[in-house]
Hints:
Oligomer: single chain
Strand order of the largest sheet: 2-1-6-7
Helix content: under 10%
Amino acid sequence: MRNVKFKAYQNGTIYNVDTLGLDNGINPEMCFAHKRSNPHIANDNKCVSLADAKFVEYVGLHDKNGTEIYESDILKTYDGNKVVHFYMGAFCIDFENRDVGGVNSVPLKSLATMNMEVIGNIHENPDLL
Length: 129
């Protein structure tokens, strides 16, 4: 079984999410705690509007450098740069089907991610696509 982890992107800042809670009042908010890099400073609790932040999930795999792969990461592959996305119950990347046209979403678990590299994500590096 894989670890369930999340990151949150808000206004150019990335938060590693340690706990999640939902305040479903009039303006729904996702509340989370994230660890600070300095262990002598208390964890920071933060609540953000669901409209203001993008939460991405860890896919349970690592790239060739041992970096954790998250939804919305950009992977450098043998076939160019690809975005990790969730489709039909699996974390996938898309490959062009050159024989019949169109795109095939291929689950990452069926690919050799040890030959791929996380080079960024769509929130911070959209220019890599």
